[in-house]
Amino acid sequence: EWEIHNATMDAHPIHVHQVKFQVVGRQTMMGPGAMMTGMMPPIDMGMLMPAEANESGWKDTVIAYPGQITRVRATFDLPGLYVWHCHIVEHEDNEMMRPFCVSDPSNPAACPPSDGGEMPGMPM
């Protein structure tokens, strides 16, 4: 399960390549500085709100609303490199397009050593 923290004032359409996921729900970020850069994680979170009716089923893109934590659940069938990004082009061009590696605990070699450009391996 992933948590997408959005401490900005913009909604971000987050897309993950090569995998489908289900939207679990969202929580409101609360506490001093919850909406300010560099103040993560928020001190408190509101109650988990279920996914909206139009978000049922498998997705490859989800809207991360301002001031909320969006939770999604994905199954990765194969280990290796994947990419997530915001579908707003200006955001993609400013570090909101990142590779990440998914590894099988029985074969950690599926993820090459990090050069600092991707997120560390995550177990499948």
Features:
single chain, 124 residues, mainly beta, Immunoglobulin-like, 2 domains, five-stranded antiparallel beta sheet, five-stranded mixed beta sheet, 1 helix, 10 strands, 3% helix, 44% strand
Can you put this structure into words, describing what you see?
The chain is mainly beta and 124 residues long. It has 2 domains: 1-75, Cupredoxins -  blue copper proteins (Immunoglobulin-like, Sandwich), CATH 2.60.40; 77-124, no CATH class. It has 1 helix and 10 strands; from the N terminus they run ββββββββαββ. Strands 1, 3, 4, 5 and 7 form a 5-stranded antiparallel β-sheet that branches. It has a 5-stranded mixed β-sheet with strand order 6-2-8-9-10. The N and C termini lie close together (11 Å). 18% of the residues are buried. The mean pLDDT is 82.
Determine and state the CATH class of the largest domain: Mainly Beta
CATH topology of the largest domain: Immunoglobulin-like
The amount of beta strand, in percent, is 35-45%
Which overall shape is indicated by the principal axes computed on the Cα atoms?
globular
* CA radius of gyration: 15 Å
Number of strands: 10
Count of the domains: 2
Q: What is the residue-mean pLDDT, rounded to a whole number?
A: 82
* Unreliable stretches: none
Largest sheet: 5 strands, antiparallel
Number of helices: 1
- Overall structural class, as computed from helix and strand content, comes to mainly beta
CATH-defined superfamily of the largest domain: Cupredoxins -  blue copper proteins
Architecture per CATH nomenclature, i.e. the level-2 architecture of the largest domain = Sandwich
Helix % is under 10%
